[in-house]
Structure formats: structure tokens, C-alpha cells
Description:
Elements: H1 2-15, E1 18-22, E2 25-28, H2 29-57, H3 65-90, H4 99-112, H5 114-129, E3 137-140, E4 143-150, E5 154-158, E6 164-168, H6 170-174, E7 177-179, E8 187-195, H7 201-213, E9 225-231, E10 236-244, H8 251-268
Antiparallel strand pairs: 1-2, 3-4, 3-7, 4-5, 5-6, 8-10, 9-10
Amino acid sequence: MESLLQFFKRSKEFLDAQTISIGTASLSLADIVYVIVACVLLVYLSSKLRRWIVRSLLSKRSPDIGVRQAIATIIHYIVVFIGLVIIFETTGIDLSSLALVVGGLGLGIGFGLQNIANDLVSGLVILFERPVKVGDRIQVGDTTGDIIRVGPRATTLKTNDNIAIIIPNSEFTSSRVINWSHSDRMVRLQIPVGVSYRSDPEFVRSLLLQVVGTHEGVLKKPEPGVMFNEFGESSLKFTLRVWTSTLITIPIILRSDLNFAIRSTFMEHGVEIPFPQRDLHLRSSSIPLPGAERGLGSKT
């Protein structure tokens, strides 16, 4: 028992030994351990607070998860900042004496971490302006998917192949982003259709509207429409326009279903879908073929 007490006593004396001085403050090993443990607890508890705000506190006041996450993230940063100030003040560190050191260090780090800083600032812009939010269907370059998380540095996108893609936030503020569901989740699809010149355009129009009227993924309001675009080289060209809100994440499935149904309906009613055709005209010529004078030409 006495040996254990002596161990703690010597450990305390060792930790209380002054190690470094910052301005007018002197830090012991015990102070350094306190700062490290306090910072870890601060980050852990603030993360717990952030999740509680999103899931419990704001769940009834705001059904939009994007709004809840934005508010919770701002509160998280404020709590961490205030907590760090309290931790440093309780250890006797004068924060004003660190201003010059932090400024110089920040300048040096800033040159090396410009991209990360740009992503963090872009993350704040996304949280405040909300050009994209969790649940949106977006397209960035050749990548299309649903947003499942908006973080301070990057946004997570989930594709139809169940692949999570991490996109830096700076891409959302510096490049073109297509948001399919910014105001609502209703989009219009356009499906080109070509039929033979022997077909009646009014009959074709009625068949196309009949096809979309039986599909559950097509909205009745706004009403579907058929546009007679032009007289093509080998077909009459139409465009079928439909609206959907349930198949916005998989528009290719809706397009495929309608193409199958259109093909089946046209075959049932004898409407021909032509393939490109070319007429080739051959003319006789008075120019002799090479080798004809030597008897090498073809004989008729």
C-alpha cells in the first residue's frame, strides 16, 4: 500500500514539473495531459451533441434533414471553439500571446493546405445557401446519384450501383452541378419515336398516350404530351414527354419500360418503325473500263 502511495506521489511530482513556458504561462506535464484529455472529450461530446440535435431536438421542428444538419454543424463548431477557449484559459495560457505564433503558423499551413481550406469554405457555403442537400438527386460531370451526407470538407454521393463517391465541396461551388430535385422531385423525360410515312400521325399520338396512361410511374398531372417534330429522311419523328416523381432516381428504367410498351403496342396495331434507308442509282457511262482495250474487261 505504501509503495502504491509513493508511486502516485512520485508520478504527481513528475507531472507537476515545469516543462515549457508560453508567454507568461508555465505548463507542466499534468497541464499538457489535461489539455489533451479535455480536447478529446470536447470533440467526443460535441459530436454526441450534434447527433442529438439532428435526431431529437430538431426532428419535430424541421422535417428537412438538410436544415437540421446545417444547424447542428454550426452549433458543433461554436461549442468546439468555446470549449477550446475555456480549456486554454483554465490552464493559464494567455491566448493573446499565441496570436502571433498562430498567425505565422496559419500562414505557412495555408499555402500547403489551400485545397482543404477551399473545401471547408465551400462546405460552409453549401450549408448556408443550400444549393444541394441530403436527399437531392444531382449530377456532377459524368457522376449521378443521391446525396446521403454533406460534410464540412466533402459530400457523399450514392449511385444507383450502390457505390459511395466522395466529392470535395469545392466542386459544387466552382463547377456546374445539375440538381434534379432542387425544388421538388418531379422531372420530365423526353422519348424520341419514329414511325413510317404510311402511319397516321393522329393515330400514333393516341397510341403513345395510351401507353403512358397505363404506366404507374408516369404522372397524370402534368399531363403527358406528344410533339410532332419533323418529317425525317425515312420516318415521321415524334417526341413523347412524360413527368415522373417516383422514378427520378432510375429514369433509365422508366425510359426502357416505355420503349418496350411502345414497340409492343405499335406491332399490335400495325404501326411500322422504319430503319434508315438509302436509294442507290447506277448510271451507265461512256468511259471505257481500264484494260478494256486489251480485252481484260468484263464480257456481257
